[in-house]
Write a structure and sequence with these properties.
single chain; 10 helices; binds NADP nicotinamide-adenine-dinucleotide phosphate; alpha/beta; two-stranded parallel ribbon; Rossmann fold
């Protein structure tokens, strides 16, 4: 598949590397000069492209940039992109990092991103930590395979997203429509807690609206109070405990 990826940070580069290694034709872009971007792209087995070119002649587009950066993208970036192209969004909103966004009020994060881009997106790869994505993938059917949820309003595009997730080594669970995607936002039991498909399905169903942002902010405050950055295992444990209201 021909895939364009915007963002070569922790998540975008991991996805690009895995999809290129699996034989997909991947183009990437970021904010660097073309010479630096070419080096990064080559290290990922991908091609370097400008922001305008990364969305051209592809079957799928993955945005993996900070939440606050969407508004800096060129206006009408996707206007000539055919409707069949699957557009995915990996982003998460953290007010302490991304600032207050009054326009987000009353919407899920990915509904806000869809409005900003002028196109519906599929929310995917948002509820997995970079370390998990990079190191904990397993072949399909293997015991203990971790799952990611896929939310959106277009079933065909959700299928494409699920196939790409499978390629990276993870199961998928249907996260419902974009308006339901708050169930996989930061602070929820489904968020970066390394669950298998059955556990993730249960976590998505059990999530209570409004609790995610409270737990998200509690985790961020906890981070700030720690003397050193937590290990990966500590981070997962923190997410798990925060989402159940028993932050440790
Ligand atoms: N880190 C995680 O564990 C994790 C897990 C799940 C989801 N997420 C979410 O996924 C998104 C990406 O996270 P990340 O950790 O990969 O972020 P990151 O390491 O900070 O990387 C962000 C990437 O976006 C690029 N970028 C920023 N503004 C851009 C613009 N206007 N045009 C093109 N590229 C732009 C940056 O370019 P430069 O390289 O040139 O700076 C960088 O490559 C975030 O929304 C995050 O919340 C993160």
């Amino acid at each position: 598949m021909k895939i364009g990826i915007i963002g070569t940070g922790a998540i975008g580069s991991t996805i690009a590397g895995k999809l290129s290694a699996a034989g997909h034709q991947v183009k990437v872009t970021n904010t660097r000069d073309m010479a630096t971007l070419k080096e990064i792209a080559a290290s990922l087995g991908a091609e370097a492209a400008t922001i305008e070119d990364v969305v051209k002649d592809v079957e799928a587009i993955i945005f993996s940039i900070p939440f606050k950066a969407y508004k800096d993208l060129p206006k009408n970036l996707l206007q000539d992109v055919p409707q069949e192209v699957t557009i995915m969004d990996t982003s998460n909103y953290y007010p302490m990092r991304d600032g207050e966004l009054p326009d987000l009020e009353g919407k899920t994060e990915s509904e806000y991103i869809s409005e900003t881009l002028g196109r519906p997106v599929i929310k995917v790869f948002n509820n997995i930590l970079e370390y998990t994505l990079r190191h904990k993938g397993k072949p399909a059917g293997e015991e203990g395979r971790i799952a990611i949820s896929v939310a959106g309003d277009n079933e065909a595009h959700k299928k494409v997203a699920a196939e790409l997730v499978d390629t990276t080594g993870f199961d998928t669970v249907d996260g419902g429509s974009l308006s339901e995607s708050w169930r996989q936002e930061p602070g929820t039991p489904a968020y970066c807690t390394e669950l298998n498909a059955a556990e993730l399905k249960q976590a998505l169903a059990a999530t209570e609206k409004g609790k995610g942002p409270v737990a998200r902010d509690a985790v961020m405050q906890k981070f700030q109070s720690l003397r050193s950055f937590p290990s990966h295992e500590e981070m997962v444990a923190l997410n798990r405990s925060a989402s159940t209201g028993n932050l440790r």
